[in-house]
Amino acid sequence: MIKQIVIAGIAASALATATASAAIIDVTSVNGSWTATNPAGVTTSSANGGTNNRISWGDPATGSWWNPGPQSGYQFDSLAPILNIAEETAFDLGTFTHFNFPIYDDGTVLNSATLEIQTQLEIDSVSHSLTSFFNFTHNETPNSSNPCADGGANGSGVNINGCADEVSFNLNAGATDSVSINGTEYFIDLLGFFTNGSLTDTFWTQEDLENTATLRGVITSVTSEVPEPSTFALLGLGLIGLGLRNRKRKQS
């Protein structure tokens, strides 16, 4: 009886082991590029090693004609490489920054833009890429309004330095993808942008500051319940052993 339990236990353990191994998941690169900017006068540039990952607009309201202050702008910065990612746990892919500086409207103030995110992953050394698009709309509010566009008073809260601007993130396409590797289906989801730890689609940004939001993702998987051939063999040996044991018992 004890031998039967041991043999059956080994077979059951092998079945469990067939689906228990965890994959090694790395994000090797994340690249964000701004496209489809409106109006056309918005300028695109590269920063911090990115490619077309910054856009700028407006006539600076600070500084002088020989040394002007900064323009307003958007920038996306990658946080890759991101190594040993745990499944079902959200992780950071990159940061979005709104450089909200005082400007005059010179006809180039941003209305909308699209951010294309290219994410390259390796799952157990198998490469996979995901391309996603986020549509941004921008509300460049007058700094002197009272109340401000968010309904709050000028000079307090998010409007402490003048009325906050409104940035909206709208997911367009490509947020979710999947890939099958060695019998396991991996689902890659770009969750969206987080501010103050919460997922959001509207971001009120303080004037005269660099305001940031974080792009986060999550990876989950579903593994086939069909065991490996070696597991079938081990289970078969266990069942054969039990059959022989029962036959001998009947013959005696």
Automatic annotation (TrEMBL):
It comes from the Bacteria. Keywords: Signal. Residues 1-22 form the signal peptide. This is PEP-CTERM sorting domain-containing protein. The lineage of its organism: Bacteria, Pseudomonadati, Pseudomonadota, Gammaproteobacteria, Pseudomonadales. Pfam families: PEP-CTERM (PF07589). Residues 226-248 form the Ice-binding protein C-terminal domain. It comes from Marinobacter adhaerens.
